[in-house]
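Figure 3 (text version): structure tokens given as input.
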């Protein structure tokens, strides 16, 4: 009987740990050496495996090459290929030739659909004038986005020992890039045709390297053969070199939930199996849950020196966060009011803030704002004016006292004169 009680107790503890820890008890048995799953809207980490380990990103590098080109270039601009681009090209390419002219738009299709290394080099030179200058720009942009453990050495991801990134950093880059509608269009394009150019007489037919978007090829998902295509996927980028092995950055949207998954250094098609597992885990276990509502009442807040003694404070925005099984009971709330709250106060003025915490970490915050104007009490205003002119009252008091002293002296002199009787 005692033994059964101990077993029951341990079972309950295990269930609780698995229920409330994001990835503590969930072993997805991933092939990849590093992986991460984040919520696209909040950047919340839903699953992690060696997320800060520096590995080779291969062609997932092209995400940042593309976003820089889109932000700094014009899609209609003509890019002329030079000899350096041809000489530096290895691996995947679309056989660009010196003197060939393509628009930036076509170069981006080649970059993100076909994963062409020559297009990456041509784009880098177009944006910055030289490959080296563009690489510097890539690293600056990476740090700006939050990819702090990344170092790029070229625009295409071909292997260099110093060209490294992490699963976390690639997720941050993808999250940033997918906010751009033009980028989203390219990475979700399955096929594209580049028409004949000033040099090539035949069209080029491009097909996306990302099997999540289209492929009926079977992959192994925990012993079950399923198509590589993922119904809810719409991007982002594949990568492969012999040193990096297979890498994949993915975006998927289902109902009101959007996820980004990254797998690095996986083996062959297992990179797709890993990605299916990550995305399924996210959609099956997490719920975008509203933990705070705009205009939600927080408290009646005391205001000094006002016509009204209190004002209702409400939240200025709604906060949604992906919670394991939508369990909102685990959220803690910390309310802080500003130290000095006195009239006048305008409607919408910030009176404080509310922080929402999960496992001791802040997952969101919202300002507490005033629901109305609070005017300064006129009596307080008059009193303040009087106090502000205190020196005038001191001066007047001194004058009055001086006058009183002088009058008193005169009175005393008169009194002495009237009481004086001359001797006869």
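Below: residues designed for each position.
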């Amino acid at each position: 009987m005692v033994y059964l009680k101990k077993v029951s107790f341990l079972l309950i503890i295990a269930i609780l740990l698995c229920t409330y820890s994001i990835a503590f008890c969930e072993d997805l048995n991933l092939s990849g050496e590093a992986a991460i799953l984040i919520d696209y809207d909040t950047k919340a980490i839903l699953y992690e495996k060696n997320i800060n380990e520096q590995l080779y990103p291969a062609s997932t590098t092209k995400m940042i090459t593309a976003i820089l080109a889109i932000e700094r270039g014009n899609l209609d601009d003509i890019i002329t290929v030079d000899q350096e681009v041809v000489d530096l090209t290895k691996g995947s390419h679309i056989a660009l030739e010196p003197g060939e002219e393509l628009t930036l738009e076509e170069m981006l299709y080649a970059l993100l659909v076909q994963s062409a290394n020559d297009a990456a080099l041509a784009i880098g030179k177009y944006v910055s004038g030289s490959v080296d200058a563009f690489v510097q720009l890539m690293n600056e942009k990476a740090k700006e986005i939050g990819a702090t453990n990344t170092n790029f050495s070229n625009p295409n991801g071909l292997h260099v020992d110093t060209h490294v990134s992490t699963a976390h950093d690639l997720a941050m880059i993808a999250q940033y890039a997918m906010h751009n509608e033009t980028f989203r269009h390219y990475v979700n394009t399955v096929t594209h045709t580049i028409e004949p150019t000033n040099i090539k007489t035949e069209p080029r037919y491009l097909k996306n390297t990302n099997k999540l978007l289209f492929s009926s090829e079977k992959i192994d998902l925990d012993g079950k053969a399923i198509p590589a295509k993922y119904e809810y996927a719409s991007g982002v980028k594949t990568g492969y070199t012999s040193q990096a092995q297979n890498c994949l950055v993915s975006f998927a949207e289902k109902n009101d939930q959007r996820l980004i998954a990254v797998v690095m250094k996986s083996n062959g098609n297992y990179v797709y199996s890993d990605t299916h597992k990550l995305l399924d885990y996210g959609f099956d276990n997490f719920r975008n849950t509203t933990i705070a509502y705009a205009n939600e009442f927080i408290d009646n807040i005391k205001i000094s020196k006002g016509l009204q003694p209190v004002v209702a404070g409400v939240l200025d925005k709604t906060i949604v966060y992906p919670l394991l099984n939508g369990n909102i009971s685990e959220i803690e709330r910390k309310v802080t009011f500003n130290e000095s709250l006195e009239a006048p106060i305008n409607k919408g003025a910030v009176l404080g803030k509310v922080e929402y915490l999960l496992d001791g970490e802040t997952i969101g915050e919202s300002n507490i704002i005033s629901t109305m104007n609070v005017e300064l009490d006129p009596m307080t205003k008059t009193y303040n004016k009087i106090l502000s002119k205190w020196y005038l009252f001191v001066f007047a008091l001194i004058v009055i006292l001086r006058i009183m002293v002088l009058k008193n002296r005169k009175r005393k002199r008169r009194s002495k004169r009237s009481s004086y009787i001359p001797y006869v």
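The chain has eleven helices and 18 strands.
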